[in-house]
Amino acid sequence: RRNVDAEDRRILGTPDYLAPELLLRYEHGPEVDWWAFGVCMFEFLTGFPPFLDDTPEKIFHNILS
C-alpha cells in the first residue's frame, strides 16, 4: 500500500476507533470499519476501549503498538 496524498493532513474520527491504516495515512477500505466495529464490541464487553489512554497521541501509540 502507498501513503495517501500528503496534502490532506487531517485525520478525522474518534481516536479510540481509528484503524492503523488511517493513522499511517495508507489507502484503506472497508476493513477500517471492521476495526472500529471490533473496538466497539470490546468496549461493549469490557466497559472501556482497548487502547485507552490519557491523550489522543498516547492512544495512537497504543494502536500502532
TrEMBL record:
<dbReference type="GO" id="GO:0005524">
    <property type="term" value="F:ATP binding"/>
</dbReference>
<dbReference type="GO" id="GO:0004674">
    <property type="term" value="F:protein serine/threonine kinase activity"/>
</dbReference>
<dbReference type="InterPro" id="IPR011009">
    <property type="entry name" value="Kinase-like_dom_sf"/>
</dbReference>
<feature type="domain" description="Protein kinase">
    <location>
        <begin position="1"/>
        <end position="65"/>
    </location>
</feature>
<protein>
    <recommendedName>
        <fullName>Serine/threonine-protein kinase greatwall</fullName>
        <ecNumber>2.7.11.1</ecNumber>
    </recommendedName>
</protein>
<keyword id="KW-0808">Transferase</keyword>
<keyword id="KW-0418">Kinase</keyword>
<dbReference type="InterPro" id="IPR000719">
    <property type="entry name" value="Prot_kinase_dom"/>
</dbReference>
<dbReference type="InterPro" id="IPR050236">
    <property type="entry name" value="Ser_Thr_kinase_AGC"/>
</dbReference>
<keyword id="KW-0547">Nucleotide-binding</keyword>
<keyword id="KW-0723">Serine/threonine-protein kinase</keyword>
<keyword id="KW-0067">ATP-binding</keyword>
<dbReference type="Pfam" id="PF00069">
    <property type="entry name" value="Pkinase"/>
</dbReference>
